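User: Mind token order:
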Amino acid sequence: MKNVETRGLVLFSRNYREQDKLVKIFTESFGKRMFFVKNASKSKFSSSLQNFTQLDLLGTMNDDGLSFISDVSDARVYKYINSDIFAQAYASYLIGLSDVAIPDNQYDAPLYGFLMKSLDLIEAKIDMVVVTFIFELQVMSRFGAQLDFSQCVFCHRTDLPMDFSYKYNGCLCRQHVDKDMTREHLDPNVIFLCHAFMAIDLEKLPSINISDELKKKIRLFIDGLYDHYTGVQIKAKKFIDGLDGWADIMKDDVK
């Protein structure tokens, strides 16, 4: 048991008994922790313990069992994310991925920073679909998937259009696509962009304009990667898939 101060992001909260709450916070210094808040509705910092809230907290951190919050300061709510159903869905998905990517109580400041920057970009109305692609691809390594989209698995050439092979767990250039007749038959731009997304630093994210058609192709490919290599299923992802369908209908109505 130790008294600490750390930055954190509220992942979710739920009622516990009649007046209390359990609040899960991804802390910068101590990983994900579950906090017990007694008489939550009467707590002076109850408004700071809502989803999509960054905060500085002072509390007691326990390696076993629940932790406790003594005080909260400098709370910042993501206003756009909370007000837009699409932004909220994508943010929830990134948070869900972060939650399952590492065990509770495991220190992972890089992942914490990566998640914060991704949410900041969505809050700034940067293309949330592209931000999500980047996040998904770069966080896959935490699920044990080490993929390289830069070169052919046979000749290691990097200067030819690529396709992807699950059989060989990597890319095939046009000179070696016949090695796997069940390869993905992807648009080469999908592999090119996935390779770029794997290397992009969100702090220096350039302006990226991708057609809706190409986004759909990338979406299908990344979904396939997650199904094959991770088996991870996040509830918010199913919601996003449904929302995307509604978005297409809305576009048709506008026309």
